[in-house]
Design goal:
By secondary structure, the protein is of the alpha/beta class. The protein contains 5 helices and 5 strands.
Length: 130
């Protein structure tokens, strides 16, 4: 599978970071959709966008990333997506909570530049769906 056929949904309430990651992923040839929160992300998926990779922040207003992750899993909204937390929450308890909800990867934003996020996301995808 080439990058060009992969669809990515990036969810983060920080619009600057969201645009930066989206640009990096698009330049790599991936199809990218973005959401600034959980409700918007759920609407995008329910409207028919079926992502191969979901990059998800934890700290967001209204619905945090863990609650969104739980909703996606319970409602089987993106059953084939590789879900990766992309967050600054790097505490073992945060990672464990996300793992218990079924994520396939965890990237701490503060320690990775956008090109590393792209490489790591693709590596996690290939390890889980390759």
């Amino acid at each position: 599978m080439t990058n060009r056929s992969l669809k990515v949904l990036i969810i983060d309430d920080d619009k600057f970071l969201l645009n930066m990651y989206a640009l990096k992923f698009k330049k790599s040839g991936l199809e990218v959709n973005v959401a600034t929160g959980g409700n918007e992300a759920m609407r995008i998926i329910k409207d028919g966008f079926m992502p191969d990779i979901i990059l998800l922040d934890i700290v967001m207003p209204v619905m945090d990333g863990l609650e969104l992750l739980k909703n996606i899993k319970e409602q089987k909204l993106a059953p084939n997506a590789v879900i990766i937390m992309l967050t600054n929450q790097g505490q073992p308890t945060d990672i464990k909570k996300a793992q218990d909800l079924g994520i396939e990867g965890y990237i701490v934003k503060a320690t990775t530049i956008p090109s590393e996020v792209l490489d790591e996301a693709l590596k996690i995808y290939k390890a889980n769906r390759g």
